Amino acid sequence: AQTVTQSQPEMSVQEAETVTLSCTYDTSESNYYLFWYKQPPSRQMILVIRQEAYKQQNATENRFSVNFQKAAKSFSLKISDSQLGDTAMYFCAFMKQVIQGAQKLVFGQGTRLTINP
Amino acid sequence: GAVVSQHPSWVICKSGTSVKIECRSLDFQATTMFWYRQFPKQSLMLMATSNEGSKATYEQGVEKDKFLINHASLTLSTLTVTSAHPEDSSFYICSARVAGLSNQPQHFGDGTRLSIL
User: Fold this and answer.
1) Between residues B53 and A72, the one the model is more confident about
2) Per-residue b/e over A28-58, b at no fewer than 16 CB within 10 Å?
């Protein structure tokens, strides 16, 4: 079974700073997908960024980028020029690749990120 | 695109009543929908996978007679909490995957806050 671990329950940084959220996972699969989801106080789950395991290039989405280390099974999220609106719970998630059938997401415990003015 | 609507957003009811939560994919068809439960300050816990036209697949420890799932169409799945009790109070979130596309991220509804008095 796959597991996802986020070792930082809470983090806090000043606006405009850069912050990195860590995530490690355990799997025997060779093909899979990794995601970072954001859950603001409104509690809606918002996809921030995704990474395909077969791609060596780290995914980027504007101010959000990942550091994907497949051998180390590490998938950290870097937020550059942090903004007040980035305040939220951040969940790392794993999904194995399948040909057919349901693909479940396995979530980490979450990291509560607070951006201070 | 890929909008998931969940209704109601908040419900308060007396102990012993049954509560139905709807999850609709508004602009796409979803053969598979997922139901999660989230306790305060915790991660999402997958309860069941809802498959259009067939029985839902429940995760270990989830009572299928307690949490009835119906997925009668490609755009609608319902979760009914039967004979609800205070311990069923929680935040319930659904997600959906676009039919015919494998290895795609799930799209989440806004969640339902259930409070049982």
Assistant:
1) A72
2) eeeebbbbbbbbeeebbbebbbbbebeeeee
